[in-house]
Amino acid sequence: MKKNYILAFLLILGAIIYLGVSALKEDKVYFLKVSEAVAMGLDKIDQARLFGLVEAKDFKQSKSKLEVNFLLADKENKEKVIPVYYQGALPDTFKPGVEVIVEGKMNHQSNIFDATLIMTKCPSKYKKKNN
């Protein structure tokens, strides 16, 4: 009888540990600059947050302004780019030349980053001026 309790306890403990480790693996999100993501290999990236600049080249926004395709360029090395697709409401300050963080998944079939969230960096006009 005592062996049954010990066995049940070990099974429950094993299940809890397994669920905890699985949850941690699924929630892992990389935060990368564009150049880091390109160097890592886009085929190896699933869930990620990418930081870069919205390029004016190939910038396409729907008339409803709820859909956008653009190139996300590395801030220091503008030759490193990742194509991004986003559908949803955009921040008011979103436009070419702005620094953004995009969160989403890499679509390995189309090699386009499907963003689920776009955050823009506050423009310098909001910064306090030094006198």
Enumerate how many helices there are, as a single number: 2
Strand order of the largest sheet: 2-4-5-7-6
Low-confidence stretches: none
Radius of gyration: 21 Å
How many domains? The number is 1
Report on the biggest sheet: 5 strands, mixed, barrel
Number of strands: 7
CATH class: Mainly Beta
Provide the β-strand percentage band. Answer: 35-45%
Helix content: 10-25%
What is the CATH architecture term?
Answer: Beta Barrel
Decide which structural class fits the backbone.
Answer: alpha+beta
Mean pLDDT: 84
Shape: elongated
What is the helix/strand order? HEHEEEEEE
Which fold name fills CATH's third level, the topology? Answer: OB fold (Dihydrolipoamide Acetyltransferase, E2P)
User: Could you name the CATH homologous superfamily?
Assistant: Nucleic acid-binding proteins
Distance between the termini: 80 Å
Give structural attributes.
single chain; 131 residues; OB fold (Dihydrolipoamide Acetyltransferase, E2P); 5-stranded mixed beta barrel; 7 strands; 35% strand
Describe this entry's structure for a reader:
The chain has 131 residues and is an alpha+beta fold. The chain has a single domain (29-122), classed as OB fold (Dihydrolipoamide Acetyltransferase, E2P), CATH 2.40.50. 24% of the residues lie in helices and 35% in strands. It is built from two helices and seven strands; from the N terminus they run αβαββββββ. Strands 2-4-5-7-6 form a five-stranded mixed β-barrel. The mean pLDDT is 84.
How is this structure best summarized?
With 131 residues, this protein is α+β, with helices and mostly antiparallel strands. The chain is 24% helix and 35% strand.
